[in-house]
Amino acid sequence: MKVSKAQAAENRQGILDAAARLYRERGLTGVGVADITRDAGLTHGGLYRHFESKDALVREACARAFDWSIAPLDGHTPNANVADRIQSYLSPQHRDAPGSGCPAAALAVDAARAGPELSQVFAEGIERNIQRFAKLLADSAPAAPAAPGSAPAPQDADEAAVAAATQRARAMQVLATMVGGLVLARATAAAQPGLSEELLTTLQNQLIQWLETPPR
Description:
single chain, globular
C-alpha cells in the first residue's frame, strides 16, 4: 500500500526519534534495526526505504540527538541562569535518563570508534554547543568591578577578540567537565550510588563557584 508523502515523512521522523533515543540508551552496538523499527511501529524492511544504510541512519540519528543539547541554548536571553543549566545537567534525573539526554555523554566513546563520518557529526554538534554556551556565558558573566563614578570603557577589536577567546575556553572547560562528570556518575551509580551523587554535587558546586569569578 502506497503511503502519502506526509505519512512517509512522519514515518522517517519516527525512525529517527526512536533511533536517537535507543542509541543513547544502549549504545550504537546495542541496538539493531529491528529494535528501531519496532519502537517506531514500522516493519523491518521499511527502514531501508528511508535510509540507504544503517550507517546513514546512525549519522542522522546522532545529529538528531544533538537537538537536545542545542535547543536549550537557542533563543537564550541575557542574564540567563547558567547555574540552573549546570544543576539540571549534573542531576540524578539526567544521569538516569540517557535516552532523552545529552548525546555527547551517552555516545562520545562509540563515536570515537566509529570512523571519520560519525566523528564529523559529533564534531559539528559539539562545536555548535561550544559556540552557544560561550555566548550564554558572555551574556551572564559577572562584570569586573569598575572605579566609582567611571563608565565602562568600550572594547577595541583586540580586546573583543581576547574576550571571545576567553569565553570560548571557559565554555569548553564547563562543557567538558559536565560531560565527563555525567559519564562518571552513570558508571558508578549502580555499584556506589553515594559516589555517583557526590560526583554530581561536587562538580555542580565547583563549576558554579568558578563561573562566579570574573575571567582575567
